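Morning, I've got a small favour to ask if you have a moment. It would help a lot if you went through both lines with me. I owe you a coffee for this, so here goes:
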Amino acid sequence: MSTLAIVILTYNGQKFLADFLPAVLAHADSNPVYVADSASTDNSVPFVRANFPAVRIIELPRNEGYAGGYNAALAHLRANYELPTYYVLLNSDVEVTPGWLRPVQTLMDTNPNIVACQPKIRSYQQRDLFEHAGAAGGFVDWLGYVFCRGRVFATFETDHGQYNDNRRVFWATGACLFVRADVFHETGGFDASFFAHMEEIDWCWRVQRLGYEVWACGESTVYHVGGGTLQKSNPQKTYLNYRNSLLMLYKNWPADGWLWGKILFRLLLDGASSVLFLKAGQWRDVLAIIRAHFAFYARLPQLHRQRRALQQQQTATIQLFAKSIVWQYFVKGKKTFGEIV
């Protein structure tokens, strides 16, 4: 049985596969590499088959985003191959480095309670800066807003070794996510209704409620292009981020928390962010935020059932970041993780 399986989910990502798959294969340490294709129309599957015969291809019937796509791909892998100890969920637009696997695997081997872990994520374009998607490990504040060591909102720190430690975090990024395979399947995988964005944060929140841990490994580094499927300025990405943040908050917030007060506060703050989009002429993003809130309200009956089920399963108490990251960043002017904590 292989200890580790690298699984790359792709949709119309032939260019990224051509650019980055050779390094993945060169630094796979003899572990199998899978490409799970979400019904691409850009010749991705024939291209991989012709140029990378060592890669195992999983052809999915449709594009179900990151969440549903990985759920289907890993279910196929479990049914047709030997189950590894770890999956590495790797975006197609990530450049790996020599020795990137071993430090994370060693950390997880040392502590069996770690079920999710990430390396440091730096920018492919500006290689000394941390990248938006995960940076050096993420956290969630008491209103459900997410931020990272190395990246808070639009401030990206230069990596000069300040996050080279291995430490527990609240969430690890889906751009390069190591997970224990058995726990992933036992917990039902990602919430497919998220489609894309924040599904990995939701899953990290859920597994911590069961007593597991999430870590970041500062001894490993990869480089992420970012925006490979949806550009950062895409209104659909705005919609998914705002909607999924609310879905995640409602599902996972503790039973004794001031939930509806937080939802109301989020409505006001999201409205304020809409004003900023409007001033920048990005009216489509404003409409995306409005759509996100209505989609959240429409999902409340289903979310309530999920919330009750999760509360019944919970065995551990977890602690979110106690301060408001919005207040710290925009009002107090604290722009980096070190200043805020």
Observations:
- The CA atoms of residues 117 and 338 lie 21 Å apart.
- The mean pLDDT is 95.
